[in-house]
Amino acid sequence: MGKGGSLSDGIIKKILLSYTYVAIWIFLSFTVIVYNKYILDKKMYNWPFPISLTMIHMSFCASLAFILIKVFKVVEPVSMSRELYLSSVVPIGALYSLSLWLSNSAYIYLSVSFIQMLKALMPVAVYSIGVLFKKEGFKSDTMVNMLSISFGVAIAAYGEAKFDTWGVILQLGAVAFEATRLVMIQILLTSKGITLNPITSLYYVAPCCFVFLMVPWIFVEYPVLKETSSFHFDFVVFGTNSVCAFALNLAVFLLVGKTSALTMNVAGVVKDWLLIAFSWSVIKDTVTPINLFGYGLAFLGVAYYNHSKLQALKAKEAQKKAAQADEEAGRLLEERESEGTGKKSESQD
């Protein structure tokens, strides 16, 4: 009874911890999105400088990652040559900087709820780019699913009360760059046996992002900021915003490390619905029935895609276990045969 009870307690503890990690990630992701919207929106804090905000995040995250790795040694740095950094990390950093710049820029023009609906296109973009770079095999049923997600997002866009073409272009660009980055991580890093957790990823990628963002910042935002003599850097607002951004990366590390990437995808869906509800009830963004119907269709498509990925993963694991079991059985058979041969030779002696 005691043994069974302790096992039950262990399982309950594990489930509670998993839910805690999910809740922390949802809260921090929710907070960063709403906080960024608050800072950038002209009707709120009114600081419409997305490149500057992203650069603040990158410099803060790079500094903290350096301290955690070099001073506190929380995680070990990855062994990486200069050639590997330039050929693999730099392109990923360039794509990440473009993705962050465009996604933060979209908050100036679009509502939080509509941005979450557009983000439902991420599996479509990842799959399409994966097929293009031959990292994914083309499957007609998967493509039909991708088209259903796209159709749902198109309906949501049609029903958007405050549709802004430039904002949509920015967000779609952000999705495209982020999807390309995820595929490039597979091609340039994972295929070479290099895995970066969120802390080591920030350690290597954040400084690179900062340098890339410096180029458009000099020409686009610096001249405007120079003329804005009334602006004073608010350490409380930008400091807490940067802490939230870094904490979100740590939460990703915990969530994926202690649960799975699929759990994060499911949690992401919950977060999106919460953000839509928050955007409608608190920020007072207009969410139309057509919006919800379209996003509902896209949501079903994304849910089916995640389910298919899970089934494929389970089948792969089962195949791997079966192969290991066959290998083990073969090894045992060989041992028995060799033992039998040994005994036979002894009896003949």
Care to describe what's here?
This protein is mainly α and 349 residues long. Helices cover 81% and strands 0% of the residues. It has 12 helices and no strands. Helix 2 runs antiparallel to helix 8 (198-220), helix 6 packs antiparallel against helix 12 (289-348) and helix 11 runs antiparallel to helix 12 (289-348). The protein is globular. The N and C termini lie far apart (55 Å). The relative contact order is 0.15. Keywords: Membrane, Transmembrane, Transmembrane helix. Pfam families: TPT. This is Sugar phosphate transporter domain-containing protein. InterPro entries: Sugar_P_trans_dom, TPT_transporter.
Key phrases:
81% helix; globular; 12 helices; disordered N terminus; 349 residues; mainly alpha
SSE map:
Elements: H1 2-40, H2 50-71, H3 82-106, H4 112-118, H5 122-132, H6 140-158, H7 165-188, H8 198-220, H9 222-227, H10 235-258, H11 261-281, H12 289-348
Provide a brief overview of the structure.
Helix content is 81%, strand content 0%. By secondary structure, the protein is mainly α. Helix 1 (2-40) crosses helix 11 and helix 4 packs antiparallel against helix 11.
